[in-house]
Specification:
With 389 residues, the chain is α/β, with parallel strands linked by helices. It is built from 14 helices and 12 strands.
């Protein structure tokens, strides 16, 4: 999900929208481009969004195999490049300084630029004034950002995010099947883990919604304890900043006969992917490991409260998504929304629910999410590209 500060959101709504509306009379023209050489994608934050968008990158690469793909990312999500296709060129930009970002983008000589952010008028304006011949982006309900692009895909909060990115991908040509695409292999970490008994737990979300998306620590203690008592080993993943919170949980879980591992801050993202690939199961709140596990085909249980799994959940067949039953659940669509009862939502998910779903996957049960997307299908090269319909 896209992240931003409160001030940025206020400026975006009350300054950006009127400016976008004023520019409607001079909407960018659709131009034909024969065999685009350089295609850029803007995604300032969120590793998980880039994992879901990997199917879009794969489709563009298949449609225009000679094109260079350039990812214009922020400081917080650049690590995704280590697991995405190695042919994608990364550029770290600070989009809170739009003038400098715009100047840099103009220097790249792009033929097409695509805004992956569904709501921000700021990133849409960067596209509008980038001097790139062809611009793509989302048309979001109730916003005017669509006037800033030559071609748009309709964004919906009622479908999975992969379907929204599929709509963007279709602007480059027909999409037969939309599939996440990561690298084929990952480096094995130095830490020795009992993979045949390993359950990975990712307990700390990131971004401005971290508190709202977190499942209570005492629930993690009970859940991890149950699996340790059943003979499994629990490894806790996350960033170095997550270690203090994880250490508290581990201190409550560990006792004679139980074994836990601290992975937070000890692995690169590719190494973490290796661990996921070889573990028995992953259990995670709604953050990037949900999408990584889904992309890798790893059995995963995703916990959703402020968000809904129909939009942000795992989509592989061996996954389970648990949606909170709280009446305030599902208030997030774009990633920045708030609710006065936000802290109550995740508490409505019980340990029994999660344990049952996880046990089913460990026993070989299948998930209850949407249909699995198969391997990508290449499409024929187009002689002249004008952005689709």
């Amino acid at each position: 999900m896209s992240r931003s500060t409160g001030l940025q959101r206020i400026l975006d709504r009350y300054v950006g929208d009127p400016v976008a509306l004023a520019l409607a009379l001079r909407r960018p023209a659709v131009r034909s481009i024969a065999d685009p050489g350089r295609i850029g994608f803007i995604q300032p934050s969120a590793i998980g969004d880039l994992i879901v968008a990997s199917g879009l990158f794969a489709h563009v690469q298949a449609t225009f195999p000679r094109a260079e793909l350039h990812l214009l990312h922020g400081a917080s999500n650049g690590a995704a490049l280590e697991v995405l296709d190695p042919g994608i060129v990364g550029h770290t930009l600070d989009f809170t300084k739009p003038v400098a970002a715009l100047k840099y983008i103009r220097s790249l000589g792009l033929d097409v630029i695509v805004d992956l952010v569904p709501w921000s008028t700021l990133t849409a304006m960067v596209c509008r004034f980038s001097r790139v011949p062809l611009t793509f982006g989302f048309a979001a309900p109730g916003r005017f950002r669509h006037f800033l692009f030559a071609r748009v895909a309709q964004y919906s909060g009622d479908v999975h995010q992969s379907e929204n990115f599929r709509a963007l991908a279709s602007l480059f040509g027909p999409v037969n099947r939309y599939a996440y695409e990561l690298r084929k292999s990952f480096p094995k970490p130095e830490v020795r883990l009992p993979y045949d008994r390993l359950i990975v737990c990712h307990i700390r979300p990131g971004g401005s919604q971290a508190r709202a998306k977190a499942w209570p620590a005492d629930r993690w203690v009970e859940l991890a304890g149950r699996f340790c008592d059943a003979g499994y080993v629990v490894a806790f993943s996350g960033s170095r900043a997550d270690r203090p919170a994880i250490e508290i949980v581990m201190a409550e879980v560990e006792r004679p006969g139980r074994q836990c591992f601290m992975l937070a801050g000890n692995l690169t993202l590719p190494e973490f992917c290796y661990v996921l690939q070889h573990a028995r199961l992953a259990i995670t709140i709604d953050t990037s490991p949900v999408h990584l596990a889904s992309a890798l085909g790893v059995p995963v249980v995703g916990l959703h409260g402020p968000s809904r799994s129909r939009q942000w959940g795992a989509i592989s067949p061996n996954s389970r998504s648990i949606d909170a039953a709280h009446p305030a659940a599902g208030y997030i669509q774009f990633g920045f929304e708030s609710h006065p009862r936000a802290r109550e939502v995740m508490r409505s998910i019980s340990v029994d629910e999660v344990h049952e779903a996880a046990s089913s996957l460990l026993a070989g049960g299948t998930g209850q999410t949407g249909a699995f997307v198969g391997p990508r299908a290449g499409s024929a090269r187009q002689q002249t590209f004008a952005g689709g319909c």
